[in-house]
Predict the structure.
Amino acid sequence: MSEVSNQSTGYCPDPDSWPAVAAALDRAGVARPGGFTHALVFRRCARCLQDNVVREGVFVCVFCDAGLPHAWNVDPGHS
């Protein structure tokens, strides 16, 4: 059984990135599951600029308690 996760604290990819991951694995001839086996949701806090893992659908910064955006925002253009 192969497993694939989007757990990358450097890039913090959104679960919506699965099609690109799947295509890359297919091109490389690597067996893969039908989706991320352990998908994480990352968001950057606009107040303190810390990257967060959203747990149980609670979009609140664990560092400063500010609300987190529902849309993915962890890229250099959003810092």
